[in-house]
Amino acid sequence: MAGQQGRGGTNQGDGSRMANALGWFSIGLGIAQLTAPKRMARLVGVNDDGKSMATMRAIGVREIAAGVGLLTQPRPVEWAWGRVAGDAMDLTLVGNALTSDDNDRARTAATLAALVGITALDVYCAQRLTNTRRNTMTTAADAKQQGIRVRKSVTVNRPADEVYDFWRNFENLPRFMDHLESVQVTGDRRSHWKAKAPAGTTVEWDAETTEDRPNELIAWRSVEGADVPNTGVVRFVPAPGGRGTEIHVDLRYEPPAGKIGKLVAKLFGEEPSQQVEGDLRRFKQVLEIGEVTYSDASIASGLRPAQPPEAPPPRQDREETILVERSADASATTSNRDRASSTPPGEPRPTRAQPRA
Questions:
Q1: Which has the closest alpha carbon to 218: 204, 226, 208?
Q2: Residue 63 burial (CB < 10 Å; 0-12/13-18/19+)?
Q3: For a FRET experiment, which of 5, 23, 141, 331 has its CA 20 to 30 Å from that of 11?
Q4: Are 63 and 30 in contact (CB under 8 A)?
């Protein structure tokens, strides 16, 4: 019975090592109760009649099942509490055996005392496993609630009031946020957002402004039922030395498909931190020069040479035209020279034709 389990588990860590020790001992004890039920009955001080033998074998099966559960499950909370329930049953059986004159009361009393200690050990192990699982679930829930966090900043060479006013008009955001298709202001503190998602899909949500301090800060969050639950804040801080305004963005959101959605976004080159960094770079361009500029690398796709290709050779018909013009110039020069040598004295010589440039 469980009272005979002199298990050497320790209260280390989250109870897993203790559960492991309990599992191995349970299997060993169960095998002994199945293969030698009479000897085990005499050890605990009960009569070795047929009823005691059947009870001992049944307890042995239970011990083996509990041991396998404790050893094979990563967090065997249910099996640990199953052991506590088994201990309660064993306490009842040994307590009844203690009142019988047919049993060895001294051994039965010792078994009962051992059972009380083992029951306390099983309860402690089950509680540690339960607390660990609760903490794990809470951590997972917190991680899901937090989702993905992105923090980026940029300095814009414009005063804070100008930068704030441009951002505060949310319908300006698609001008520099490449993933946004549209933002429509629907109320004093409400707006409707539509954004591009990986693989050519779109997502939409409604957002509300939770804090608005002119020239300093804008905070928002999505309302319930959003395709992409998100919260964020953007701060406008004067840059040192009068060099404009620092924009600090802190964004949290849960992608549509969790971790899988984040992986897909990376494959499409739309990793969240890259998105926000690109958005702020375009924001700086819009505020400083009035438009977003694109390099050849940002427009063309695929592999391109580092240097521009050489100019194509002149067309054949152009070469023929140049040769004809040069031949005509040479003929004109020769003709003028001949005429000059045949002109009589006193008459003006013809002017030599000037070569073309």
A1: 208
A2: buried
A3: 141
A4: yes
Burial of 351 (0-12, 13-18, 19+ CB in 10 A): exposed
- Pairing status of strand 201-213 against strand 230-238: unpaired
| pTM of the predicted protein model | 0.44
User: 147-295 domain in CATH 2.70.40.10?
Assistant: no
Rounded Cα distance, 101 and 265, in Å: 76
Per-residue pLDDT tens digits for 287-317: 999 887 765 444 444 444 444 445 455 545 5
C-alpha pair distances (Å), 245 with each of 150, 232, 274, 305, 352: 20, 19, 21, 38, 71
Q: Which letter does DSSP use for residue 262 in this model?
A: H
Where does residue 151 rank: exposed (0-12), middle (13-18), buried (19+ CB within 10 A)?
A: exposed
pLDDT in tens, 148-185: 788 999 999 999 999 999 999 999 999 999 888 999 99
Find residue 276's DSSP bridge partners.
none
Q: How do the domains of the chain map onto residue ranges? A: 2-144, 147-295
- How many residues does the structure list for the chain? 357
The DSSP line for 98-141 is: HT-TTS-HHHHHHHHHHHHHHHHHHHHHHHHHHHHHHHHHHHHH
Instruction: Tell me how far CA of residue 199 lies from CA of 203, 264, 266, 269, in angstroms.
Output: 12, 8, 12, 11
**How do the residues of the chain divide into helix, strand and coil, expressed in percent and rounded to 5?**
55, 15, 30
Instruction: Give the whole-angstrom CA distance, residue 253 versus residue 232.
Output: 8
SS3 label, residue 243: coil
Residue 122 CB-density burial (10 A; 0-12 exposed, 13-18 middle, 19+ buried)? buried
Residue 99's φ and ψ, nearest 5 degrees, are: -90, -5
